[in-house]
Fold:
Amino acid sequence: MIDAHQHFWKLARGDYGWLTPDLAPLYRDFLPGDLDPLRRAANIEASVLVQAAATSDETRFLLEIAEATPWVAGVVGWVDLEAPDAADQLAALAERPVLRGIRPMIQDIADPDWMLSPALDAPLRALPELGLRFDALVKPPHLANLARLLERHPGLRVVIDHGGKPDIRAGVFQGWAEDMTRLARDTDCCCKLSGLVTEAAQDWTDEALRPYVDHLLERFGPERLVWGSDWPVVELAGGYAAWRAASLRLLRGLDASARAGVLGGNARRFYGLPVPSEPQAKETR
Structure:
């Protein structure tokens, strides 16, 4: 089992612009020792560590953590894709095997057309050549442009973070559902089953989440969905264990093979994560 979306941060680093004291449950350091007991209790074998700051310094910080933490199987980092040397930066970072992808923080960029800028073409073409994936941190207003981006770059391997962030709290379904249907039908992108509880009301229930989860399952199929905790952000909406338990209930209708894919196998294939080595057979004497 793999957690395909989690974060670490250290406040003293000072580059988390979105992380302010009013987010009290999150306003402290979160490091491997904090997640380890939670992932062990959930039988999570490995995780994918995802950037939370739009700086190259944070990416290097995450790579160092991953290289020192056996159960962190991959890192999704950040590069300034508009920089003239962005492709060279990507090539240098890709020399570290634990880097598996890049995530621009599209949801925080004011221009909804940013992802279609010609300045991004060269680095986006470089990603598949370097074996790197693209995490699309988008909201519903970005989904139509994401479809256009994938038409322009059909070789880009993309996963949509947090189910495309539907407004579950307000009960908005149409629009999001149609755009996600189009992306699932017309592209080969994957989608993360993560981050949904923080888009729902504080007292969310399985039934509030179910229409959105069922739509993603129906359109993408269980073979293109990957489960993630979005820890520690999930602590704003019930916590790791509550979201994990709800996920298992919502996936109960799948057969064992399909459920295993959503909970780990699909993430391993999408990110190209290493397969754990088989235990060495003991020599008999």
